[in-house]
Specification:
11 helices, 2 domains, alpha/beta, Alpha-Beta Plaits, Rossmann fold
Length: about 425
């Protein structure tokens, strides 16, 4: 990260418009995809409020137009709805509507030992672990049945909060619609970011197991806030991610949320200035939260393959490198799958950084089983069972009580929490730092 002497230098040096002035006529305010709707058609949409509109624009728009919204996200100045073709046209003529976009689907990007390669182990030895910094992991959830976020499998003191936006855009804390991971991606991401690697520490000496390599995350002192937006297949929608970002902004003081990790994304068909996912990410940046986003795994398709919201100039967009099993960075190479810039449409230089993302070790995900008190492996783990890490890869013997505590995945999803963890360490060192252009 020689690009950054401070957080300020992690951002692209691009001039940004202070307001969205592109929507001049009603049709200009509607995404081209929605202009293809016929009479009687309906679509799920995100409505971006006019830049500079006073707080509470959503209810005012609804009162004026009679168009019914499902949710208002005040912190990011957007609303969501399922609307008819005529309702969309009606909204496009409202003075407080900037743009009407589709509520597009998003997904996780994922299908060696990366933290050590970026100096995280050395940072921990020097006393820097991201302690006290809240990181919102907006993903498939984080398993709080794993031992990676507590101390010696005790109470998970660094697991700060959990909430789901999969079925309720206002958020739900009640199982099974909570922040628990029912897929497996988010737990892996959170472990790379902040896991303590309990089963690769002296904790297991009691079973005559002696680890010789600690599989812990970049910032094992950071506090994790799990915001579940992806279902048990790893799929989600713009509105769920936007709701999670909105919640993170509204609750940043309570949980000291200084970083948002987005190891997910989708292709885009419009400028970042009109994209609701990008605009939500910008709202977080304006609120003082560092937003770290995966570049995407479409690099084999060529250039211009960075996905949203990684195409926004205000987020830190992360590509992946293969460490080739060494901490010597001169030997690292960018992976073939890592999405390449410049971005489509806006032609912004991306990604901003690259980090280890190939065959990254992290804790496996377990979730509540059908039998009370029992656990079962998450679907992603079962699907890619060959990716389980053999115990003897990091310890002297195989566990007798349970095998394969760790799992490996590849992708820009894995590189992103490496950078998020590094940001947490920087913020611990310089707590008054803020994201800036």
């Amino acid at each position: 990260m020689n690009k950054a002497k401070s957080l300020a230098l992690a951002w692209p040096t691009l001039a940004l418009a202070t307001s969205l002035s592109f929507a001049q006529t009603p049709s200009d305010r509607i995404h081209p995809q929605l202009l293809q709707l016929h009479a009687g058609d309906t679509a799920r949409v995100i409505v971006i409020h006019r830049a500079g509109a006073a707080h509470g624009a959503g209810p005012r728009i609804q009162a004026r137009t009679g168009v019914e919204f499902r949710n208002h996200f005040d912190s990011v100045a957007q609303s969501s709805a399922s609307l008819s073709e005529q309702d969309i046209k009606t909204l496009s003529m409202d003075p407080e509507v900037e743009y009407v976009a589709p509520d597009s689907p998003v997904k996780a990007f994922a299908l060696d030992k990366g933290p050590d390669s970026v100096g995280a182990y050395a940072a921990l030895s020097a006393g820097f672990s991201g302690s006290g910094i809240g990181v919102a992991v907006i993903d498939s959830g984080v398993s709080y049945l794993n031992c990676d976020f507590g101390v010696n499998c005790g109470s998970a003191t660094r697991y700060a909060a959990q909430i789901s936006f999969v079925n309720n855009l206002n958020g739900s804390w009640t199982a099974p619609d909570d922040g628990e991971d029912y897929f497996g991606h988010g737990t892996h991401v959170a472990s790379i970011l902040a896991g303590v690697g309990t089963f690769s520490t002296s904790y297991v000496n009691q079973w005559n197991i002696f680890p010789f390599y600690a599989v812990h995350g970049v910032a094992p002192g950071a506090h994790i806030v799990s915001e579940r937006v992806l279902d048990n297949t790893g799929a989600g929608s713009d509105s769920s991610v936007i709701a999670a970002i909105d919640w993170a902004i509204a609750n940043k003081a309570q949980y000291n949320i200084r970083v948002i990790n987005l190891s997910l994304g989708r292709p885009f068909t419009t400028s970042y200035q009109k994209d609701p996912l990008c605009q939500a990410a910008e709202a977080a940046w304006k609120a003082g939260i560092v937003v770290v986003v995966a570049a995407g795994n479409y690099g084999r398709d060529g250039y211009g393959t960075v996905t949203a919201p990684g195409n926004d100039p205000l987020v830190i967009t992360v590509g992946a490198v293969n460490t080739r099993g060494t901490t010597d960075r001169t030997q690292h190479v960018v992976t073939s799958y890592s999405s390449k810039g410049p971005t489509g449409i806006d032609h912004i230089v991306k990604p901003d950084l690259v980090a280890p993302g190939n065959n990254i070790y992290a804790t496996q995900c377990v979730m509540p089983g059908a039998t009370s008190g029992k656990t079962t492996a998450c679907p992603l783990i079962k699907t890619y069972a060959a990716n389980m890490v053999v115990d003897t890869d990091y310890a002297s013997a195989t566990y007798q009580t349970a095998d394969n505590w760790y799992f490996r995945l590849s992708g820009t999803s894995m590189a992103t929490p490496v950078v998020s963890g590094a940001v947490a360490i920087l913020l611990q060192q310089t707590p008054h730092s803020r994201p800036t252009r």
